[in-house]
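Our preliminary data section would be incomplete without showing what the modeling component actually yields. Below, a chain of 322 amino acids is followed by its predicted structure, encoded as tokens that our downstream tools consume directly.
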Amino acid sequence: MNFIFGLTFSFSAVALLFVGCGAVLQGCDKTIALEITNIYENGDTALHYDYCEDINDGRGFTSGIAGFCTGTGDAWLVIQEYHKLSGGKDQMSTFDPVLAEYAKTGNNATTGLSGYCTVWNKLGSSDSKFKQAQDTIRDSLYMDPAMDYAKQLGLKTSIAQGQLYDAGIQHGASDGPDGLGGMIAKTNALVTADEAGDSGSTLTVNGHKIDEIAWLNRFLGVRADVLSNPREPTNMSGAWAKTLYRIKSYQYAVGAKEYNWGDSVKVLDNDGKPITVTCAIALSSRQDSGVVGLNIARWPLFLIMSLGFYLTHVGSHRRGYR
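Predicted structure:
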């Protein structure tokens, strides 16, 4: 996501065995939502824990399953979580002073990080604790806030919940005009009358009863407009307009009435071709088979303790899918 947002995290150190704080997507639904977003981000459904490169987008090194960046602070969160799991000193420790400074200042340089991607590649390929750290931060920053919004709205369908997660990954959870919260507010403002539908789920918005899929269609329209015409200066590079396939993919599934997913769902890939996504996350080809998570929702999610700072992050920014 191409903007600044202020999220103050102050969570207790609680381990949840199935889902993160406030999460709604569980089991196969969560797995499929992750896979769909992986298609948009990487062009396949694999979890690229070992991915790392400088894509020259002004955010330093971009790495891991959610495009964690050294210049925006979330990569540093992953490393800190990994330190907790590894017991302190580990192969990433040598980068701590530089990562901490860059996270604090929003510095997008890679100076002082020689060998960073080599270490990330190695740990992402072989270290289950490093993978677990990435899962935890992804859920804390993106999945959990998106699902909190879903609960507030009363969303029940897999497709609506999955769309909020994907939007959270790309846009972030802020209330700014380009953020997830801002887009939800804009969508709600469009609800001025009751509207029936066939989803089996009815929301109450502005005192009106609206079918959940009718609301989702409005949200997809609002998000498409933001991608085409972002309001925040940091998002005006034109890159977002190239990712409208994310909207078309979900619209395709809505058109096919794929509201609740079960074990699979058919969406469009980045070339507009139908693809069936199943409940079985693949691994990056460079990863070992001892992965954290054919069903990620079963793994404990250890929440971040007392993080109180403003975080700038980049969303859909890996391998040309910005």
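The first helix runs from residue 27 to 42. Residues 1-23, 284-322 have pLDDT under 50 and may be disordered. Preliminary results of this kind motivate Aim 1 of the renewal.
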